[in-house]
Amino acid sequence: MNALEIDRLSVRYGRTTVVDDVSLAVPAGRTLGLVGESGSGKSTIAAAAVGLVPLAGGEIRVGGIPASGRGAAARGARRSLQLVFQDPFSALDPRMSIGDSIAEALRATGRSWSRDARVARVRELLDLVHLDPDRAGELPAAFSGGQRQRITIARALAGEPSVLIADEVTSALDVSVQGAVLNLLRELQERLGLSMLFISHNLAVVRYVSDEIAVMRHGRIVESGPTEQLLDAPAAQYTWDLLDAVPVLGVRMADG
Questions:
Q1: Which of 39, 101, 129, 153 is in the most buried spot, having the most CB atoms within 10 Å?
Q2: Which CATH architecture has domain 1-80+165-172+196-256?
Q3: What does pTM read for this prediction?
Q4: Calpha distance 47→4 (Å, rounded)
């Protein structure tokens, strides 16, 4: 069963179509990488999936349940999706402690939490992303970029999602900490049984975390398939161009 299905999705800003008849499926417990250059429509798909932008056409389903509409089933489906934003510096309220920020996200579970249960859960989530739970009372300014991204991941996990959407989560980070965040996502997926839509412009990053890849250009999917199969023998010239642009140890990915 697919954890997330995006079926013939279209999104328009005014008269401009930015996502055009896109269909994607994230299998349960797996990672689908969505890759393409800036402006291809990737982040718009993420925003549409969690209800931040209206759909011009198509449907989004979580576990087979439509996520649009006002009914209880649709609200439950939307709660099963959580988005980790690109920029950890702007994603957190600078005036709010990281513990309060994570605790606020617990409301997405739809349950009531006592104060003690809320504090315990925040500590558990910080430990889950390898941050000291005793720092829950500190402000975001006390943390590095990589640590802040871990905090935003913990906040997303507070909603107890079945599907995590990670939108360019390493692009604002130093290269030295990108790998640690990617390893954390892989660890969390295995430990929690998460399904993940991983969005990036960087094919090397997508290759590292994804079971399958969909390549997007100008609002449309140009090809998709299992990661190694697609990257070893791309059908689209655009995918070759993306491969050609990513150096690995001084050698172009397309060369080996």
A1: 153
A2: 3-Layer(aba) Sandwich (3.40)
A3: 0.92
A4: 14
